[in-house]
Recover the amino acids of this structure.
């Protein structure tokens, strides 16, 4: 029984495999025969591209040489291996190109909707003014004189239009937060209602006033005032449907990240599935810790090593009687699998010990670096003007004393791809400017923060796809499950309705709180 290693030609970005004859393949196999690697896994024929790590904190090769293998896990910018976190195939490339085309279509749809809403809003605000001005332009000499009441209606129309304009600007003219796959049903319903309402008013105005050339100008102005009043009521209806209806919590959603199982709970009101997905994503960037695929590498390599221990290859052929030896090897592999929990325990214990050690070194290094900084007062600035530095220069002066310890800690905790040298210097200068303590400076690096804390180019989730069995415009219901997918992971959302709670009242008479003291011979009272 022996293990066979396949030769594989690897290039940066693409892999080409050439066919050989059976004899040549056998000779190459015998020539390259070697024992299995330490992890016991075999390379697969797949093109895998890892994302490049962040800018290294220090370019010191000596410090890298002192690091162990676990600390230099992300040194290379491009790696092609059999087990990786990011893989791109022809289907992925086709899907990415389709997403780009869909994004162009979403932009066109968004601008079309904004154009229709703007044109309709302009028509709504110009309609009452046109109702008042058209009689003055077309049959001014035949109109009855406008009295005091009629002139007062002009002021009423003007102030109501101003109020309606401000309310419309506050409710509708907002910068969109996202591109939803479908239209917002209530918003589209309100646009249709306003269009039908204004159209009906114009139809009545054309038939009863323009055709007959009505001379009662005060009645025409009152007709315009009634239009403005109706528009204000429609605006109140829009506030109820778009803002107030969703405030009362009716559902509880559980959001689980598919890769590491991190979960959060949120309370939502009456929302459609696509708007609930938008609320979930807004809370995800704030509440969930940043997605770090490097933390999953160790568990995957350990699982691959244990699975590789169960593989048995019979190179000599089925003719030999090696069934007893095969059973013995399978039993040994099963015992090795049963003892895997001990390996996991010692690996985690060693990693925690190394993290605590380097965290202590980092804390001490940062505290010593901050002791060299002193904020100068106004009278001290006149004594030594040549020794003064701005916050950026002070950060650059003390950063080398803590850079080595910070670099080792970030590598050990697998966070170096999220913190470049420039971002650390900016954060350090910010802490110096605001007179913050070393503990406040280290808070960002000792505890992984939410996604919004890091630069946008460090995010692994920017474009999402909503997957749902129900229509995305339908409302939330008990038991609905939908998935939000991005390139590297997905968020599984499970909706549960908040149960109906029934409270009953029980009255207790304050005079009923009477007690007696029962003494026994054994008590000390």
């Amino acid at each position: 029984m022996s293990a066979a290693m396949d030769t594989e030609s690897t290039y940066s970005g693409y892999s080409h495999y050439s066919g050989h004859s059976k004899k040549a393949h056998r000779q190459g196999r015998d020539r390259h025969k070697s024992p299995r690697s330490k992890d016991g896994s075999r390379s697969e024929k797949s093109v895998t591209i890892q994302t490049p790590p962040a800018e290294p904190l220090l370019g010191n090769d000596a410090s890298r040489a002192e690091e162990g293998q676990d600390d230099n896990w992300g040194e290379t910018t491009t790696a092609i291996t059999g087990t990786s976190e990011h893989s791109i195939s022809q289907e992925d490339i086709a899907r990415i190109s389709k997403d780009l085309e869909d994004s162009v279509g979403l932009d066109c749809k968004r601008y079309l909707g904004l154009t229709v809403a703007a044109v309709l809003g302009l028509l709504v605000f110009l309609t009452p003014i046109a109702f008042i001005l058209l009689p003055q332009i077309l049959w001014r000499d035949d109109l009855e004189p406008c009295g005091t009441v009629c002139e007062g209606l002009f002021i009423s129309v003007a102030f109501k239009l101003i109020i309606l304009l401000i309310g419309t600007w506050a409710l509708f003219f907002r910068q969109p937060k996202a591109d939803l796959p479908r239209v917002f049903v209530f918003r589209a319903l309100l646009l249709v209602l306003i269009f039908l309402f204004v159209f009906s008013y114009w139809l009545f105005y054309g038939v009863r006033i323009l055709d007959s050339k009505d001379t009662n100008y005060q009645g025409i102005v009152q007709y315009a005032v009634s239009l403005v009043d109706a528009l204000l009521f429609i605006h109140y209806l829009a506030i109820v449907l778009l803002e107030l209806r969703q405030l009362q919590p009716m559902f509880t959603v559980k959001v689980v990240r598919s890769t590491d199982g991190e979960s959060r709970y949120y309370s939502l009101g009456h929302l459609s599935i696509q708007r609930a997905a938008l609320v979930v994503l807004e809370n995800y960037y704030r509440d969930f810790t940043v997605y770090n695929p490097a933390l999953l590498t160790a568990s995957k390599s350990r699982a691959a090593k244990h699975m590789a221990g169960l593989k048995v290859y019979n190179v000599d052929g089925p003719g030999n009687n090696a069934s007893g030896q095969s059973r013995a090897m399978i039993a040994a592999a099963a015992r090795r699998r049963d003892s895997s929990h001990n390996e996991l325990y010692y690996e985690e214990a060693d990693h925690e010990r190394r993290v605590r050690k380097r965290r202590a070194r980092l804390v001490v290094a940062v505290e010593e670096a901050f002791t060299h900084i002193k904020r100068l007062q106004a009278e001290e600035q006149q004594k030594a003007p040549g020794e003064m530095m701005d916050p950026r220069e002070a950060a650059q002066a003390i950063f080398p004393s803590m850079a080595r310890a910070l670099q080792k800690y970030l590598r050990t905790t697998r966070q170096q791809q999220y913190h470049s040298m420039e971002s650390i210097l900016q954060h350090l200068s910010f802490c110096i400017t605001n007179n913050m303590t070393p503990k406040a400076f280290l808070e960002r690096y000792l505890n992984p923060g939410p996604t919004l804390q890091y630069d946008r180019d460090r995010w692994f989730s920017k474009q999402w796809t909503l997957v749902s069995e129900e229509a995305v415009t339908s409302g939330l219901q008990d038991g609905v499950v939908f998935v939000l997918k991005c390139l590297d992971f997905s968020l599984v959302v499970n909706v549960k309705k908040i149960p109906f709670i029934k409270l009953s009242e029980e009255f207790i008479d304050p005079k009923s709180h009477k007690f007696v003291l029962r003494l026994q011979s054994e008590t000390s009272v």
Observations:
- The longest helix spans residues 90-138.
- Confidence is low (pLDDT under 50) at residues 1-90.
- Strands lie at 251-257, 263-268, 465-468, 481-485, 490-497.
